[in-house]
Structures are given as structure tokens and as C-alpha cells.
Amino acid sequence: MSSSESFVTLATNDNYALGALVLAASLRNVQTTKKITILITKTVSESIRNVLHQSFDFVKVVDLLESTDTSLLEALKRPELGVTLTKLHCWTLTQFNKCVFMDADTLVVKNIDELFEREELSAVADIGWPDCFNSGLFVFRPSLETFNQLTQLAAKEGSFDGGDQGLLNTYFSDWATKDISRHLSFIYNMSIVSTYSYVPAFKRFGHQVKVIHFLGSIKPWYCSFNASTGQLNTFCGNTYAQEFIKNWWSIYVAKVHPTIEALNLVGPMSNMAIAPPPGSSICCTSQQPSTGDRFNAWQQGQIDYLGADSFDNIQKKLDAAIDNL
């Protein structure tokens, strides 16, 4: 196993720590030869830290870096993005020569060790603005100099989106034009939204996908899963997203829950019920927005493509309305 290279992820709360545990298990499922590291903040509970130490090669506690651009965060309606600046600490992992950062809401389905052949900063284009890269996965070289320059840039100019992606795209501003080899294929960071927004492409290229990114408000741990049947109890997202969410849960049940159970942890996460014995349901819920909130979100272009506003749900409402005519 390479000791000079590592996958790196980040968790600032227990829910994302759970996602990180599944991510680590998925990397080992595809037989990675690299180390796996997680950065955590003090907001991750002690009980979950015990599980993380069982699953990761390195666990490092870091300070929370928050964005001061409150106006930008408010404009984005995503105040939680501020804590993602904590991601900058990945550049302090100087015991490694090269790393691949992955958000905790990603899932690896095929071996991706070849990413370590790429140079900093290699990443996938963002589907919202392809001249920018998506910071959910990127190749980088740890460097205290880079870390200091990034934090200085954050203090001086802030971030144009209030989070780490805007800041990193400002710092690595030549990503779009300097070197095409730094543009990674979409298969390394496929947003789950894409299975809805461009179905023909997914049908054509989906079998090549290596990394799934559960980008947006629908996270696997907010869905309800039956460990006995291997099926979701509720419809989460669209038909294609369902399969990836079930894949996530299958890894959780097989690889993560046994570790939690062995440590006799009971309900360490406030927003999620730990899996009961096989044959029972694993149920996780998230607060559903009101009709008024959903209308306002539509007006602002914030459409829940994978949830309440998915094509399948809209079609069901249309069919019901037609039946009532």
C-alpha cells in the first residue's frame, strides 16, 4: 500500500461522518492501494470518532474555517456551505506527496487509483458552470505554502459562492484554459442530478461511471431502506438514482453497521437511526419543505430535481389530475 499517497475526505458533523464511512468502505471494496484519511472537526461526536479510527488509516482533527461572506451565503440560500472552507486543511497533510480529495457524499463504484497519475489541480467540470471545476473531487499536492495562500485569499477576497468551490476556482483560475490534462472525465464525479437532467447520456455512458456524487439535498442517509429485502422503503430521487442509493445502503449494512454494532454505539447520530438487525427497516427522515417553501424555491430556480420535484412525482400528479377530470 502506498504510504505517500492518500484519498482524503472531510466530516464536520455525524451525518457526514457516516457518509465518509461508506465512502471509505467503497474505496476498499474496489481494492484501492492508497491510504484513506479523514479530516474532522470537534463537532463530530466522540462515539463516531471511535468508528472513524476503525475505518480510516489517518484521522486528523482540524479547526472549523467559516466563510465571512454572510451576504453571499444568504444569496445562495445555503448557509451550510460556509463550513466547507474547512476543506482547505487538506493542504496541511504534508506527510503525503499527492492526494485525491473526495466529498463525504460521494461513492466509489470502480477503482480510481489512476487519478494519482494526474497533477494538481485536476478535477471534473461543474455541471452548472463548466468553466469552473466541481470541488467534490480533485487531485492536489499538500503544501503549507498553498494552504497559507488559500487562507490569505479567503481573508482578502472571500469566495464568489461563499464556499470552497468559489475560492478554489479563484486560486486555480487557469484550470479551464491552461492544461486539458487537468480536466477529468465526468465519470470521476458524476452528479446524481445528471441521471435526471440528461437521461440519454446516462444511458449511453452510465456503465463507465466510477464515482457517484450525491450532490444536492437528497442524501442516501435521508432515505428509508429495508435491510432484509435490500430495497428502499420510499422513492428517493428518480429510477436511476434509486439504484445508486441502494448501493450506498448495501455498503452501509455490510461494512459500516457491523463496526458500529461491535462498538455498542446506540443512536450516535441525532438525525439518523442506526440500522437495526437484518429484517428490519433502516429509516432516516429529513424535514420536508412546505408547499409555500417549495413554490418560493421554484421561483428562485432552486428545483428539487431528485425529490419532490422529480419527473416521476410530477407525472404522478398529472396522472391523478387527469383521472379526476
UniProtKB/TrEMBL annotation:
Sample GO molecular function, one term: glycogenin glucosyltransferase activity
Record localization: Cytoplasm
BP GO terms, sorted: glycogen biosynthetic process
Cofactor names: Mn(2+)
GO cellular component, one term: cytoplasm
Pfam families reported for this sequence: Glyco_transf_8
Gene3D superfamilies reported in the protein's UniProt record: Spore Coat Polysaccharide Biosynthesis Protein SpsA, Chain A
Keywords, sorted A to Z: Cytoplasm, Glycogen biosynthesis, Glycoprotein, Manganese, Metal-binding, Transferase
InterPro entries given in the database record: Glyco_trans_8, GNT1/Glycosyltrans_8, Nucleotide-diphossugar_trans
Chemical reaction(s) catalysed: [1,4-alpha-D-glucosyl](n)-L-tyrosyl-[glycogenin] + UDP-alpha-D-glucose = [1,4-alpha-D-glucosyl](n+1)-L-tyrosyl-[glycogenin] + UDP + H(+); L-tyrosyl-[glycogenin] + UDP-alpha-D-glucose = alpha-D-glucosyl-L-tyrosyl-[glycogenin] + UDP + H(+)
Enzyme class: transferase
EC number: 2.4.1.186
Function, in words: Self-glucosylating initiator of glycogen synthesis. It catalyzes the formation of a short alpha (1,4)-glucosyl chain covalently attached via a glucose 1-O-tyrosyl linkage to internal tyrosine residues and these chains act as primers for the elongation reaction catalyzed by glycogen synthase.
Family: Belongs to the glycosyltransferase 8 family. Glycogenin subfamily.
Protein known as: glycogenin glucosyltransferase
Organism: Blomia tropicalis (Mite)
